[in-house]
Amino acid sequence: MKFKLLILFVMLGALANAQPSKTRNIILITLDGMRWQEVFGGADPRLVGHTPIVEDTVALKQTFWAPSSAERRARLFPFLWSVVEKNGQLYGNRAIGSLVNTTNKMWFSYPGYNEILTGAADDTQVTTNDHVDNPNVNILEYIEQQPGFNGKVAAFSSWDCFPWIINVGRNGLPVNSGKVSFTPLNDKVAVLNEIQFQLPDISGSTRLDAFTFHYAFEYLKRQQPRVLFISFDETDHYAHEGRYEHYLASARYTDDMIGQLWSWIQQQPAYKDQTTMIITCDHGRGGDNQEDWKHHGSKVRNADQIWMGIIGPDTPATGEQNKGQFYQNQIAQTIAQLLGLQFKGTQPAGQRISNAFRK
Q: Taking the model in full, what pTM does it have?
């Protein structure tokens, strides 16, 4: 009896000392197929000087090359390394023992996004990139059904598959995806609607990331959602095309767009010191040579290796993590618990990333 009372007092004491979450808003961002090797090492020395994957090796080196990996990664991702690393956390530098992996065995986009959003791999039903409805309940629709979040959750993506990944037919969430017009919120959105169809069509129904960013940014400014998901695609597109300098350039200006978003958030009373941003990717890529770098999937070695960054008022500023094994399926529950919720999906979600919470 005394032992049980002691345990009870310990539990009550822990609850009393636990800090309530300050996070009221979540921004989830993905860079499709962005390798951890460049995130933590910058321009890859095995790739920067080689044609045909680099058309202008001199120009690429002038922009992205430096003697050390620390300098190279800061050139490629200045926001990640000047803001997130100093004020948040970065996971996935396998060179120093920080490991992040998918738990799905597919290692391509739809299964990766399913795992991010539902907190669980589904290697039985989610096995292609086809435009088919996802049978699994995702974190976005779960949150939207909670008090205070109705009408406050939205998603914007460059790849046009997301209405099926998120299953808008089931949940009716606002998902602006692919090369489609967006309901004009102002003159800027009206111009974006027009010019996106006037630029060269580089990837069919998948739109350029700048459009996805500006659509999402204008929506954020005017609709003030509490949960916003933004998915960029160009890094994966250019990698598949074997255009390394374009892959790096896309990563660089995507980092800049994310930085603009975070800077705006810090100036808004409804978001400043109340918003957590999580940045990650859906899958990795090959890393052994010039040809492997273009590809991913279950037959490509190490394409399950990913990374993530977290910054917000509840996350300790411990910077680059130097040890530990983490998984893609932990993101959904981490988002839920930052908002003071407990996510219950179709399958049990991975545990939250405990490091991302203050003790």
A: 0.94
C-beta of residue 276 within 8 angstroms of C-beta of residue 262: no
pLDDT tens figures, 13-40: 333 344 689 999 999 999 999 999 999 9
- Which tokens belong to 326? 């983490």
**Mean pLDDT estimate for the chain:** 93
Residue 340's Cα: distance from chain center in Å? 21
pLDDT of residue 79: 98
The CA distance from 309 to 115, in Å, is 17
What is the domain partition of the chain in residue ranges?
Answer: 24-356
State how far the Cα of 337 lies from the Cα of 21, in Å rounded to an integer: 8
The mean pLDDT of 168-194, rounded to a whole number, is 92
Contact 357, 337 (CB under 8 A): yes
CA distance readout (Å), 140 to 28, 113, 217, 291, 292: 10, 12, 18, 36, 34
Mean pLDDT of 241-260: 98
CATH number of 24-356: 3.40.720.10
Rounded CA separation 33/102 (Å)? 12
**Three-state SS for 8?**
helix
